[in-house]
Amino acid sequence: MKYPTKRDLKAIEEWKCSDGEAELLKLLSFIESIWEYADIGFFRLTGKKILKLQLHTGGWSGNEEIIGALKNNKHLFWHVLWEKSYRGGHYYFTIPNKLFKA
């Protein structure tokens, strides 16, 4: 099982996802690479005007730590993109394409 390192979590917290769409997509790819059970818990749904992101932790504490790092992102990932969450580790984000066009 993968578990995010302190370095991974710090990188997420400091990731400049507000620097444009490319940086945001790099962040999402990085998270997917360290997300345990990504095949059933990490979903990107792309539309013409928005990108939807669903993260489901599956009860894995490492995934919960990644969620915590996203909440602590210094470049407002959580504050700007979080849509809703449900008990049991289900998180939903909406990312308007126009928001991240550089």
Taking Cα atoms only, what radius of gyration do you get, to the nearest Å?
13 Å
Number of contiguous helices: 5
> How many individual domains?
1
Give a count of the beta strands, DSSP E runs of length 2 or more: 4
As laid out across the biggest beta sheet, the strand order is 1-2-4-3
Distance between the termini: 36 Å
User: What gross morphology would you assign?
Assistant: globular
SS-based structural class? alpha+beta
H-E string: HHHEEHHEE
In percent terms, what proportion of residues is strand? Answer: 15-25%
Q: Name the poorly predicted regions.
A: none
Q: Kindly state the mean pLDDT as a whole number?
A: 89
Helix content: 40-55%
What is the makeup of the main sheet?
4 strands, antiparallel
Task: Produce a short descriptive summary.
This protein is of the alpha+beta class and 102 residues long. The chain has helices at 6-14, 21-34, 38-41, 61-71, 77-81, and strands spanning 42-46, 50-56, 82-86, 90-96. The protein is built from 5 helices and 4 strands, in the order αααββααββ.
Structural overview:
- This protein is α+β, with helices and mostly antiparallel strands and 102 residues long.
- It has one domain (6-100).
- Helices cover 42% and strands 24% of the residues.
- It contains five helices and four strands, in the order αααββααββ.
- Strands 1-2-4-3 form a four-stranded antiparallel beta sheet.
- Helix 1 packs parallel to helix 4 (61-71).
- The relative contact order is 0.23.
Descriptors:
102 residues; alpha+beta; four-stranded antiparallel sheet; 5 helices; 24% strand
